[in-house]
Amino acid sequence: MRATTIHAPFEIRVEDVPDPKVQQPGDAVVRVLRACICGSDLWAYRGDSARQPGQRIGHEFLGVVEEAGADVAAFAPGDLVVAPFVWSDGTCDYCAEGLQTSCPQGGFWGSAGHDGGQGEAVRVPFADGTLVKLPSAAASDDRLLTALLALSDVLGTGHHAAVGAGVTEGSTVAVVGDGAVGLCGVLAARRLGAERIIALGRHEARTGIARTFGATDVVAARGDEAVAAVRDLTGGHGAHAVIEAVGTEQSMRTAVGIARDGGAVGYVGVPHGSGTGLDLGVMFARNIALRGGVAPVRAYIPELLPDVLDGTIDPSPVFDVSVGLEGVPDGYRAMDQRTALKVLVTP
After folding, report:
1. Fewer CB near the last or first residue (10 Å), C or N of the chain?
2. How sure is the predictor about 49, in pLDDT bands with cuts at 50, 70 and 90?
3. What pTM was estimated for this model as a whole?
């Protein structure tokens, strides 16, 4: 089969690799119908996170079960399924607590020795604990299928940030970051009942999506200028809940700076760059809480799935460029150059 591999910074290839096979009784093989490129994939692409030459890449996909191991009880060939970006056994204490990202037997697609989502098919360990079944009719609806793909990562990650930030009915929310996760954070905040949502971003196409998703205000600034603008919009107080979806020192400083005293920052931006941007003395004095981390999207899919299916929320606009599998290297270049927000891959 064909799959995407990374060989060095800025060197993405699509190559012939061995077909995935059931190796353990709990495995399934999924033929990929939709995959995509994530902003976090760019850290490997740019050389900011190490990869072995030839390692697979990509962690977001949905598709059809082609083969199921003898111990797989919940799925059969022909089932349409979505995979969260981490596989998990579904039976350990962490999985029972809804923290599948800490499953001792879990792992990330594209890690050394495992299939990545940007390929024709994927071997899925612990299929019963990992996969979520989708209505078969969705396979014939292109827009819905693309919206459902967001459940594999960005929609659940934006929701995790909103939950961590404590978004409640009637609250004021600020979102730092205009990438796909930040935009899904806007969508999640609206879904949770936020009255006012302030999106921070300077890219007009992206802030346009933010407004469509429910943003009431846009701040096209960074750093101290952004802090001043948000405080001006909120009568000098700041936002009850802040979603941090970038992961740099500057973005974290901004998030703390625009939080209201007694508020919270929900952080899901993959940390990169120097330092943390946290001044614990400031956070202590202002009673600002910090919650977040790697989103356990497997725990959120059952909650979010019905709203995607009935159109209550539609994250599909975050996918603004589409490529076939052979076009994945071009997709990486487009996202690296910020000419694409999030690239959809249709193997």
Report:
1. N
2. confident
3. 0.96
